[in-house]
Amino acid sequence: MLLLPSPLLHYFPANFKSNFLPKHSKSFTISLRPPLFSVSAAGREVDTFTEKSGYLFKLSASEVESLAEYDPKKIAAIYRRKPLVLVRRLFQIGTTFGRWFGQRYIDNLMEKSEEMFEIRAAELRRILVELGPAYIKIAQAVSSRPDLIPPSYLDELSLLQDRITPFSTEVALNMIERELGLPVDKLFSEISPEPVAAASLGQVYQAKLHSSGQIVAVKVQRPGVQAAIALDILILRFIAGVIKKARKFNTDLQAVVDEWASSLFREMDYKKEANNGRKFRELYGGIQDVLVPEMYAELTTRRVLVMEWVEGQKLSEVKDLYLVEIGVYCSFNQLLENGFYHADPHPGNFLRTYDGKLAYLDFGMMGEFKQELRDGFIEACLHLVNRDFDALAKDFVTLGLLPPTADKEAVTKSLTGIFQDAVAKGVSNISFGDLLGNLGATMYKFKFQIPSYFSLVIRSLAVLEGIAISFNPNYKVLGSTYPWIARKVLTDHSPKLRSSLQTLLYKEGAFRIDRLESLLTESARARVERALVETQRKSTDSKVIIKQIVNFTLTEQGSIVREILLEELAKLPPQSQEQLLRLPTDLAGRLVSRATARTIRRMFL
């Protein structure tokens, strides 16, 4: 949920009476903002989703309560008793999209596609808003990839991140009172009369706590979202089952839908979001220039969330490469260090604060990445960059992408054909999006599967790259992440990664010094100081890099590398060892590489 930067607030007199407030709430002030509501012909405030899909909201209290957790059997049982609602929803979806695709087809026939492009993009956005949160969530994921979506559609779909028609403030304030059990004027001394942002699941108000005077964001859940999402997921799940039976995909699409649906249902429980936010703040709030807002758990329920107010601009709207690098580093920590990651990183959830920090928002959709999968992901990156495609095929089995019965020799041959040219350009030029695109035919041929966890991880990385591409077309998220992976492999003492490093550096007993040099060089780029972001990515073979490698090797963190170098030095004949330490670096480089010679000489002289 994006908290938009607010102008200076102007407050009404304390005796001002607002039609938006409950009747007993007359003693506190509200800030003035332009209205965002649409108004029906009867003069009643109503949002588009409620107007077009409000029939979905009519569930009993017990039925609503049963939707607190995602359970496809319970959802199916509810709508088995409501066949007319199901049929009406199918008819609405079919006719709505059918009309839009029909118009696009006519545009093509009349050769007006380009002329009508922007109009159809705006119509698509309005359709998604009418159909509700499930479709908006899908569009949000797509809208973060400017390299895949035409600009007109991208502009329209990006509005779905935080500029959806809000629902009535009167309904929102009544929900706050009902959920928190106190009159609004007892909770807040000031509150905005209109939401400052509205998204698919809820909308945000700016308020001042009555108790402390702290400025906070109050997020209120949109009425009817659980019922609408539950039915739409039931429909999507059915379609996924039909596709699975038709054997058009190797992946268990129903499991993918279930994983996404589970995370979506968790996102609708604001108490869980508050707990996620506190955990995220504890794990990553200490990273330099990362800001994670404080959660007010005592003022949070399943449908109302109170958190620290954050102001800034969307990261996608400011060209700040440094903060993108901070985001990459933070994502590395989320995915590969702690395994607790933000699974909904669309542009509306990243802000650049006015003091230059990267603020994370919206902690409803989080993911857990198990240790064995983290290690498997690291190994896959290492093997990809070092063109060890035979090992990469085995990594895909470990990650659950390939069945154990797959013909690994044939897979290796296919992966070599796909990735050889891409990797030859260097790790800094490997596009995450291109890798996924090139894999398509191979995934189908060898019955690749998409594990349920993997879709969220891929989305997290792809969205981050998409944000960066919007202002730097040459940005590669893998190229920015790999230095941190190299640093972790060279410093982590876990048996699994130590074994991975040994396997990488030795082949049939022969020490591959070139790979160690490559890892050391890449790890030297694992820095996020603002002044160095632009220069360090361009430095691959300079005195600065050599100095960083030497300094790293001599630190406590570099103990693993020192042990490897000492072992290799010990294998040389005594005379060669002595010559190596005495010879100038250029001559010593004939025995080992220059970088290694410099390192060894510094260690002993």
UniProtKB/TrEMBL annotation:
Domain of life of the source: Eukaryota
Domain ABC1 atypical kinase-like residues, every copy: 160-394
Gene3D superfamilies: Transferase(Phosphotransferase) domain 1
Span of the signal peptide: none
Family: Belongs to the protein kinase superfamily. ADCK protein kinase family.
The protein, known as: ABC1 atypical kinase-like domain-containing protein
Organism: Tripterygium wilfordii
